[in-house]
Write a structure and sequence with these properties.
0% helix; 130 residues; 12 strands; globular; 47% strand; mainly beta; six-stranded mixed beta sheet
Length: 130
């Protein structure tokens, strides 16, 4: 199981950094995807980082604002979020896939609901508001 943390309240234009950690297992084998789900909306893919070569992919709505990275020594994957918008408000989750991020289209992460990802844990709430 993965645990996402680091959420909170941010103002529009602000920043937050989310962390994804695993207890009892190592993440370095896995591609890690970040997803989010806003009230009344379907879950969507936000970003993904592969384990093979660290290639990153992003959802079109967050490109240029969010950065995914991993620190295998700390067994943690991060999602740095800048220029936050009210529409970024959601519960954010991380999940695993074997080694590579799929599906992708060019540099875009297009996993749909993420049904091919696993080890979902509790998410962390991000609220962007004045």
């Amino acid at each position: 199981q993965l645990q996402a943390s680091g959420g909170g309240l941010a103002q529009p234009g602000g920043s937050l950094r989310l962390s994804c950690a695993a207890s009892g297992s190592t993440l370095d084998y896995y591609a890690i995807g970040w997803f989010r789900q806003a009230p009344g909306k379907e879950r969507e893919g936000v970003a993904c980082i592969s384990s093979t070569d660290g290639t990153t992919y992003y959802g079109d709505s967050v490109k240029g604002r969010f950065t995914i990275s991993r620190d295998n020594a700390k067994n943690t994957v991060y999602l740095q979020m800048h220029s936050l918008k009210p529409e970024d408000t959601a519960v954010y989750y991380c999940a695993t896939h074997d080694r590579i991020c799929v599906p992708t289209y060019g540099s875009s992460f297009v996993p749909g609901l993420g049904s091919n990802f696993g080890s979902w844990g509790q998410g962390t709430q991000v609220t962007v508001s004045n």
